[in-house]
Structures are given as structure tokens and as C-alpha cells.
Design goal:
With about 400 residues, the chain is α/β, with parallel strands linked by helices. It is built from twelve helices and 17 strands. Strand 2 and strand 3 form a beta hairpin. Helix 11 packs across helix 12. Homodimer.
């Protein structure tokens, strides 16, 4: 018999009842050190006091009115995002998947309004993940996501990851946009080299194609800059943001230049819940905290400390780990064993991690993780690796 909750997830047999900072407490009272942050969502940790206070205050005033009216909280967050980024305008959503849908529509509408209705092709990269809507899976194109869901939305072309020459050969006068993650999350914490991002930007400038950055997972302070593309010194025309921007509250945003957004007039897009007062009040508080230079500097410092610990872990367990990659507090452990096995071994050591493609274990701790918790995490990962080694030796 099918369960009342549609069984589309392979869930771990753990349920949490409380969170505080970098820790989650299960129904049986066991505390787990959370290096997943709800997949990069709880950027300021669980039950962050500043966010709780902001949400509680807003909940006592106003929850929802719809976008039929002005929403002051939405305007405040949009003003903050515009002031701190390349963007001129912002549309609010509830999720990262929704940001992908608008980014696609915005890019194609831009060319339609310029009289080039057939300029619809969007270039993407192998290993990408842009969400699970029909448009987003068509953009990514991997068999795992698209099988059984055809016919797919046309107009996407997937290019090899890491082959900048193939990209430069593919982009041309029919390219509407290029959609890229500065760091692939689901794809295995694969960092797009700064030089390649600059060449992508240059090619877009040369051909007129719009550049869409998907910073749903790597944005909002995760790399030690407010947004990951800043490291390369380039700016997109459209940017997708979600996950960390709400600190745990469902919130997403599409940021764009006035030029890129020029085709989006009243009636071309909408959302009932997107940009509601609760989400935007929390998002503004998240952005105020994370965008502070001292906060971002601390992310960078803690990232260095964590990476140092992980490099030592890899050196100590060469049969389990191959290397460390990523940027800031978006870290991947390339594994020689199935990442899912390490996730399971971590449950036994009361530490939470997230598996990814390319045989990679994702570590996405709260940006507020302490030095002591980093040391604790290294110790628990060490114990999990030892469990794997023990099982390997017993199976030989």
C-alpha cells in the first residue's frame, strides 16, 4: 500500500524534533552534528535567535496578502539585494526550482521582444542541477532526471563540463542564454574555474547571449563572498537564488539587470505565495547578517580550518577518500567508496552529511559553525571512515 506521503524520497529512518545552531535532536533524544544544513538552507544554523525574533514579530503583524498589493517587506529585501549585487530588479519565489523557470522565461522573452523569437537555445553543462520542474530537468538533461518524463521542453543544449573550448565553439547567434552554476552542488561540488567563468562572460558579451548564474546552492555567503561569481570578478545578467537566503524559510529570488528583465511586463509571470511578508522579513534579516564583511571573513577563516582538518582526514584514510574540493563552506570529499555508505556510517557517529554525484560527499555546515564544532566534525568523520575501513577489511 502506498504511504500517505508520496514515496519519492529514500528517507533515512531518523526524525528530528529540535534544532539549535549546528545540532539536531532526534525523537529519541540523540544529538547529531549537522554538516548538511538542510542541503545548504540553514545558513545561520537551526533556530537562530535573530531569525526567530524576526519571524515571530512579522507573524504577529501580517502573514500573507498576495501580489495584488504592494508588499513593503518585499520591497525592503529587493532594495537590499539590488544595493549589494549587480541587479536592478528582483522577483521573489518560494524555491530554487521556481527561479529556474523564471530565468528561462526571462531569457527567451528578452529575445522575443527584440524581434528574434527563434533565438531560444540555452546552453547548460553536464552534471548541472537546476531543479525538478519539467523546464529545469530539460535544462540539466541527465537521464536520471528526464527518463519517463518526456516530451521535454526543447531548446536546451548540454555541453561537457570543464571543456571551455567546446563551449566557445557552441555559443553563437542563436544562443539566447548560458546557464551555469559557479559551483555544482548536486553534480559533486565541482568548481568552475574563475578563468572559465570569465571566458563564458566574454563569449556572452561577444554574441549578446544572456548569462544566467545559478547560485541556489553556492550563494548567500557559502563560499566566503556574498555570491560565488564574485571570486571571478564577473557579473551575470540573471541570477537564481534560494536555499540560504531564507535561512530555513522557503524563499527564492531571481535577480536581473534592467536590460535582461525588459520583457517581463505585468502578466508575464506571477506567484501567489512568492515574496510573502513572512519570507521577506526573514530574508532581509539573513542578508543583513551574512553580507557583513566581518561575517564573510569568518566564513573564509573557518573554511580554511575545516579544509585543513579534511586534508588530514583524506591522508589518514586513502582507501576511503581521494581528495577535497570546493570553496568556502561548500566542501566535497571525493570518495573511493559509495558516498551513501559514508552518510550511513555518519549516522552511527551522529553526524549528518549529504551524498552527491561524481562519488562525492557534500559538507555544507551552517556558516555559524564554531571552531570547536569543526574539530568535533573532523573526529566524527574520522570515526565514520574507520567504520567503512572495518567493513572493507571484513568483506575481503
Amino acid at each position: 500500500m502506498i504511504p500517505t506521503v508520496l514515496p519519492t524520497y529514500n528517507r533515512a529512518p531518523i526524525a528530528f524534533v529540535k534544532g539549535e545552531g549546528s545540532w539536531l535532536t532526534a525523537e529519541d533524544g540523540t544529538r547529531y552534528l549537522d554538516l548538511g544544513s538542510g542541503i545548504a538552507v540553514n545558513a545561520l544554523g537551526h533556530a537562530n535567535p535573530a531569525l526567530v525574533a524576526t519571524l515571530t514579530e512579522q507573524a504577529g503583524r501580517l502573514w500573507h496578502v498576495s501580489n495584488v498589493y504592494r508588499v513593503p517587506e518585499q520591497e525592503r529585501l529587493a532594495d537590499l539585494l539590488v544595493a549589494k549585487t549587480f541587479a536592478d530588479t528582483v522577483f521573489f519565489t518560494n524555491s530554487g526550482t521556481e527561479t529556474a523557470e523564471l530565468a528561462i522565461k526571462m531569457a527567451r522573452k528578452y529575445w522575443y521582444e527584440k524581434g528574434e523569437a527563434d533565438r531560444i537555445e540555452i546552453l547548460t553543462f553536464e552534471g548541472a542541477f537546476h531543479g525538478r520542474s519539467t523546464g529545469a530537468i530539460a535544462a540539466a538533461g541527465s537521464e536520471k532526471m528526464v527518463k519517463g518524463f518526456g516530451p521535454l521542453m526543447p531548446g536546451f543544449r548540454q555541453l561537457p563540463w570543464g571543456d571551455i573550448a567546446a563551449f566557445e565553439a557552441a555559443i553563437g547567434p542563436k544562443t539566447a542564454a548560458v546557464m551555469v552554476e559557479p559551483i555544482q552542488g548536486e553534480g559533486g561540488i565541482r568548481v568552475m574555474p574563475d578563468a572559465d567563468l570569465r571566458r563564458i562572460r566574454e563569449a556572452c558579451d561577444r554574441t549578446g547571449a544572456l548569462l544566467i548564474m545559478d547560485e541556489v546552492q553556492c550563494g548567500v555567503g557559502r563560499t566566503g563572498r556574498l555570491f560565488a561569481h564574485e571570486w571571478a570578478g564577473v557579473t551575470p545578467d540573471i541570477m537564481m537564488v534560494a536555499k540560504g537566503i531564507g535561512g530555513g524559510f522557503p524563499l527564492g529570488a531571481v535577480l536581473a539587470t534592467e536590460k535582461a528583465a525588459s520583457g517581463m511586463t505585468p502578466g508575464t509571470h506571477g506567484s501567489t505565495y512568492g515574496g510573502n511578508p513572512l519570507g521577506c522579513a526573514v530574508g532581509a534579516k539573513v542578508l543583513e547578517i551574512i553580507s557583513e564583511p566581518d561575517f564573510l571573513a569568518e566564513v573564509g577563516r573557518k573554511a580554511g580550518l575545516l579544509r585543513q582538518r579534511l586534508e588530514a582526514l583524506v591522508a589518514s584514510h586513502p582507501d576511503v577518500f581521494e581528495g577535497v574540493r570546493g570553496q568556502g563552506l561548500m566542501i566535497g570529499l571525493k570518495c573511493r567508496v559509495a558516498p551513501a555508505d559514508l552518510v550511513t556510517a555518519g549516522y552511527a557517529e551522529h553526524i549528518l552529511t549529504v551524498a552527491a554525484a561524481d562519488n562525492t560527499l557534500r559538507l555544507l555546515p551552517p556558516l555559524t559553525i564554531s571552531d570547536a564544532e569543526i574539530a568535533e566534525a573532523a573526529g566524527r568523520l574520522e570515526a565514520a571512515a574507520a567504520r567503512i575501513e572495518q567493513s572493507l577489511s571484513s568483506s575481503q
